[in-house]
Amino acid sequence: MQNITKITDELIYLGGNDRRIALFESAFPVPRGVSYNSYLLLDEKTVLFDTVDSAVSDLFFENLEHALAGRSLDLLVIHHMEPDHSATVFRLIEKYPNVQIVTSQKTSAMLQNYFPLSCKNVQVVKEGDTMSVGKRSVSFISAPMVHWPEVMMSFIPEEGILFSADAFGTFGALSGALFADEVNFERDYLDDARRYYFNIVGKYGIQVQNVLKKAAGLRIELICPLHGPVWRKDLGWLLGKYDIWSKYEPEEKGAVVFYASVYGHTQNAAEIVASELAKRGVPVKVYDVSHTHVSNLLAEAFRYSHLVFCSTTYNNGIFISMENFISDLKAHFFQNRKYALVENGSWSPQAGALMEKEFSEMKNIKRVGEKVTVLSSVKEETRAALTALAEALAADFGA
Ligand code: FEO
Fold first, then answer.
1. Ligand 1 pocket residue status of 150, Cβ below 6 Å
2. Separation of 18 CA from ligand 1 center, angstroms?
3. What are 11-40's pLDDT values in tens digits?
4. In angstroms, what is the span from residue 198 Cα to ligand 1's centroid?
């Protein structure tokens, strides 16, 4: 049965939630599910903004038919060809064969790659183009690499409605409420929104900054992303988060101790550093990198200002889960942070030097304090070195 929600009298939400999915993109755990958003504008022309993932396609088609109420579908605007939004395009064209696709040049090429389509119903648009659809117009904004190269956004200037593609989206299904101001977003969605941002588009901060500059010139009243709630209030707060995130600046002043430990001795060292930081008034969190998904670790590393990496040595290298985490940080252009190192090894500690090499290849990552080496287990002198490390971090932190 249809389950549509009116955003305005003539703009309708048609998306759906997938709570059965375990891993978004086969990579990111989504225990609270994810929504796939699609929007229908009923003007003199009917305009569909994106389709949905195949997981919610049956509901989507029921919603679309109900919302059209017997009208034909005139235009399909495709902002992004990733299949979580375009998997149902071919089925849509079979059902509405006269629909005209409006999209970027790159998407028009990708369409042929994904579907056995002829190109005759595709209208290619580019940055700055505007199309009248009746009382309103739709203008197009290029947004390459947010999150694929073909991505564009659309804007309805008469009502200040921005269709923002993946930007401003979040993991987490919608729980009845469609609008961000109807939920406690900071409590219920912000962690997932941050994790979504850094894992999905975090690598492309420069491109996100470019889009934010374009957005600054628009009178935006409503943001309709492809995942998560629709925004009609507090847009400045949301845009501010994206500004900080895409500049790779710490969102909060605070410390995180990440450790990889096989028999608990590296954990012991990590927790001593954390306790000594807390005693000095530094807000601190601790994560076992072998027991927390790397997508969460990545989001937490980007969130805070001071990070401590503690790893045992394994096969003459960094422990597997820590190596994977640091490699993921590097792949996402991790930068602008202070960090400290603790290594462990029973006969040839190597993890510290290897971690340091990795961080030396990242931008503006500065080490604080002396690297601490644990030989198998923490002794009194090692404890003193860990305390000195916490003191150096606290001094740098300004606590
Ligand atoms: Fe939600 Fe990049 O797709």
1. no
2. 14
3. 999 999 999 999 999 999 999 999 999 999
4. 13
Range of the domain at 122: 5-246
Please name which of 271, 277, 124, 304 lies closest in space to residue 198, comparing C-alpha atoms. 304
This model's pTM is above 0.85: yes
Stretch 263-270: mean pLDDT:
98
Residue ending a domain, choose from 195, 222, 246: 246
Whether the CA torsion 39, 43, 47, 49 is positive or negative: it is negative
Q: How far is CA 48 from CA 14, 39, 63, 191, 284, in A?
A: 9, 6, 12, 30, 46
What's the pLDDT score for residue 157?
A: 97
Kindly state the tokens that stand for 380: 């009194």
CATH number at residue 355: 3.40.50.360
Residues 329 and 361 in one domain: yes
Are 148 and 188 contained in the same domain?
Answer: yes
Whether residues 92 and 173 fall in one domain:
yes
Residue 80 Cβ < 6 Å to ligand 1: yes
Ligand 1 and 82: CB distance under 6 A: yes
Domain endpoint, select from 246, 268, 291: 246
DSSP string, 288-328: ETTTS-HHHHHHHHHHEEEEEEEEEEETTEE-HHHHHHHHH
Alpha carbon distance 63, 13 (integer Å): 9
Q: What is the mean pLDDT of the chain?
A: 96
pLDDT at 119 over 60: no
What is the band of 118 on the pLDDT scale with cuts at 50, 70, 90?
A: low
349 — pLDDT class (breaks 50, 70, 90)? very high
Is 50 a pocket residue for ligand 1 (Cβ < 6 Å)?
A: no
Residues 303 and 208 both lie in one domain: no
pLDDT number for residue 174: 98
Closest CA to 122 of 140, 96, 103: 103
Task: Answer yes or no: is pLDDT of 235 > 70.
Answer: yes
Q: Is the CB of 99 under 6 A from ligand 1?
A: no
